[in-house]
Design a protein that fits this description.
Blueprint (H helix, E strand, L loop, with lengths): L1 H16 L4 H12 L3 H8 L7 H10 L4 H4 L10 E2 L9 H16 L7 E6 L4 H4 L3 H15 L15 H13 L5 E7 L2 H14 L5 H24 L8 E7 L6 E6 L4 E7 L3 E5 L2 H13 L4 E3 L5 H16 L2
Parallel strand pairs: 2-3, 3-4
Antiparallel strand pairs: 1-7, 2-5, 4-8, 5-6, 6-7
Helix pairs in contact: 6-9, 8-11, 11-13
């Protein structure tokens, strides 16, 4: 019984550390657990314990490691994956996505926060701002991993107004991260152009739709070149470093390091991530990913010649569509 009290006390400490103000914590718990204010108060006063389902919900949403709290050590590090239908999210999935956006917006108050992404496809943080480009990735995801046997054309990939609003809010929120690093596979745009050409060849994307995607790509390149030249997001002046890997990137990886929580991701199945907030694994991820810079060229702020050559070659690729 004593061991149960110890882990639950540690769990409650993590809960209270989540927000500096009790009013913010109360509101967040009400929204996440769908319970009344008084029910939250009783739990925070330890008059009533969080149920097992509520503990798991909070641990998943707020990246609280129950293994670490319970001091479980079996020599293994577990990764988790939250599956979300990005085309037609349930209300629970939409609520989770809005919570993620709220959490990202909160990061602007912590200047030491850092996000790093090593990627072989355009990261969601950038794609989200371009309607047809974002729609293409959703279409490709549905084509590869959807449950329907019939191929659904690009024109039938419908994004609801609610999902479009969430995507735009995410695109704006991500600019609030104080420090961001992107390491692009040197063939990233070539892979994307080949994918678009393939879907055009099997008549799932029309010539008109291809031109819309092409326009988004050119606009994105213009934006990225501005970011690379300045070294920050023009909307928020938060720092952004862009690197081009000279070696192939076989798998996408990322991490987020904040004063509240550290988490690392492996990107899988086009739209998903498996993640861990195990401290040793996150430390390793940060070390491994920082070392990747040794085989990469920084094109943000410094090395103007490499920056111009990169964006010129990428525009030529896009124009080949």
């Amino acid at each position: 019984m004593e061991s149960n009290n110890i882990w639950y006390a540690a769990f409650m400490k993590k809960i209270h550390e989540r927000y500096q103000k009790k009013t913010q914590l109360t509101k967040a718990l009400m929204e996440l657990l769908s319970i009344e204010r008084e029910a939250v108060y009783r739990r925070l006063r330890n008059e009533v314990s969080f149920t097992a389902h509520e503990v798991v919900t909070l641990a998943t949403a707020w990246n609280i490691s129950l293994d670490e709290i319970m001091r479980v050590n079996v020599g293994k590090i577990s990764f988790q994956m939250r599956v979300i239908n990005y085309l037609d999210p349930t209300e629970d999935e939409s609520s989770f996505l809005r919570f993620v956006i709220q959490s990202i917006n909160f990061l602007k108050y912590f200047p030491g926060t850092e996000f790093m992404d090593i990627c072989n496809k355009l990261p969601r943080q950038l794609v989200a701002g371009y309607e047809y480009l974002n729609r293409f990735y959703l279409f490709k995801w549905a084509y590869q991993y959807g449950n329907t046997k019939d191929s659904v054309p690009f024109s039938n990939t419908i994004i609801s107004d609610e999902k479009r609003k969430i995507t735009q809010d995410y695109y704006q929120a991500i600019k609030n991260v104080p420090n961001t690093n992107f390491v692009f596979d040197f063939n990233l745009f070539r892979y994307l152009i080949n994918d678009i050409k393939y879907f055009c060849s099997i008549y799932l994307i029309t010539e008109t739709e291809k031109e819309f995607i092409k326009r988004d790509l050119l606009n994105l390149l213009d934006y990225l070149q501005e970011v690379a030249k300045k070294g920050y997001y023009p909307e928020t002046q938060n720092r952004v470093n862009l690197y081009i890997s000279q070696l192939k990137v076989p798998t996408g990886y990322s991490y987020t390091s904040t004063p509240e929580v550290n988490i690392c991701y492996v990107h899988v199945f086009e739209k998903f991530q498996i993640f861990s907030f195990h401290s040793d694994m996150v430390t390793n991820f940060i070390s491994w990913m920082q070392q990747k810079k040794r085989t990469s060229i920084q094109i943000s702020e410094v090395d103007e010649k490499s920056r111009i050559e990169f964006f010129t070659s990428q525009r030529q690729l896009v124009e080949s569509l």
